Prior knowledge:
This protein is mainly β. 11% of the residues lie in helices and 50% in strands.
Amino acid sequence: MRAAPFLLTLLLPVGAFAATPLEKPVARIDTITASGGDGTLIIHVTGAVAGGGWKGVHLRPVRPHIPPGVFVVEMVGTPPPDGTPVIEGLLPVSADLTVHGLRNKMGAVRVSSQGNEITTQVLN
């Protein structure tokens, strides 16, 4: 029975932290540019989110890259909490990703979102 107060002391701080919102795919992808050489790949993507309040929009690599030679990423961000007043409508966003140390040459980049997916050739 002595362990119960100690256990409660350990559990209370865990509940004191708010859960972080999960990242979700953006609404759509509009453009992709990709260039590379010497084991480096540079990707720039523009798209849109479904309203204001999104934070931390970035490109998240997806593993494995299928088919081989295609670098696959997902454009994601953190949406505002439910019930937060935000500007409604599609709002533009962009994200960049530079990958160093690729062992295999990537011939294409595929970016996915909630509403679409676009693949482009890597310019050398």
